[in-house]
Amino acid sequence: MQEAFTSHLIHRNDLSNTFSSSKGAATLGAKESFAIHLALLMALLLGSLQAQESKPVMTIEEYDPRSTLVVPAHNVVSAKFPFIDVHNHQRATPSAGAVDTLVMEMDKLNMQVMVNLSGGSGERLKQVIQSYKGRYPDRFAVFANIDFRNVDSAGFAERAAAQLRKDVANGAQGLKIFKNFGMTLKDSKGERVKVDDPRFDPIWRACAELKIPVLIHTGEPSPFFDLVDKHNERWLELTQIPGRARPAGEFPSWEELMSEQWRLFARHPKTIFINAHLGWLGGNLGRLGQLLDSLPNVYTEIGAVLAELGRQPRFARAWFIKYQDRVMMGKDTWAPSEYHVYFRVLETADEYFDYYRKRHAFWKMYGLDLPEEVLKKLYYKNALRIIPGLDKPRFPE
Ligand SMILES: [Zn+2]
Q1: Residue 229's CB: how many other CB atoms inside 10 A?
Q2: Is CATH 3.40.630.30 correct for 83-394?
């Protein structure tokens, strides 16, 4: 047994030339044989230690294996149906040529309408609307933002709501709340402003009256709030960009932050909320489903969380079918080629293909192969119902 084991080891380590005496050892006495085997084993151990020293294991950032799997593959560069990207950010003062180029790129993707969430308010908002909708009235929608400076001054929310009414009169089609609200925004006493702080209720009520949706981004992926150790699924991202970590003590916990958001949704049932990034529950769609069941005024979108869907194609497909009236297409970062991966995950049944950003996902994607009617709702029907002023005839029945 021992001899066979040793020679197996020798062979495995490709050292059979150096240690070719294992057969000869059989003719020696048991003690000598044992001593030789011990020496051999030690030499092997030493050899493997040296090998490790001279050839270090590559880092996770370097490791980039190319798949040898051959299966049907579909590169989808244009969406099957025209779509509305409800989560996008564009600069405030583009040149006319830059807007023309943008629309050309949108055409290639079959993106009929882009929602630019970075409208700002007042004069800036007017300028953003003029730059985009002035040139292509039906290809853009612009959402306003709240200026949260002097957040706890007397009458802040009433003034913000009055400004919002003006912004909507000037063409804003929704309100976007950025993630600083609830996470880093502090009042004059240095206290964190909570997402469900009742002082802001006049703003949410105004949105209900104005019949505009509030696209709200609260918090970040839950692993950002966890210990950054070898078990953390976003370890690579948190190591490459350490500022993204949200350690306890400096930040509220993920549960605390999200609970505030959910309480806000429940307290304003007449206000339509679009919970950005699948509410950071893309990896727990069951829980997201329960939330949508209990809050009929809440919708969501898939910006920047595609990697969560592409790793659970069967469960995610069933979930999209069940919640087909509640989810919209969004992307967040404007990078045209990355949309191709969205289309491929949503539309095809392809298996084991690449996502576009390793720090979001060190795993492969699988297509959800969504039914056409579900795709249409995701791509445009739900957004047409929720966002006012969109050009319906642009889209098929
Ligand atoms: Zn965004």
Answers
A1: 8
A2: no
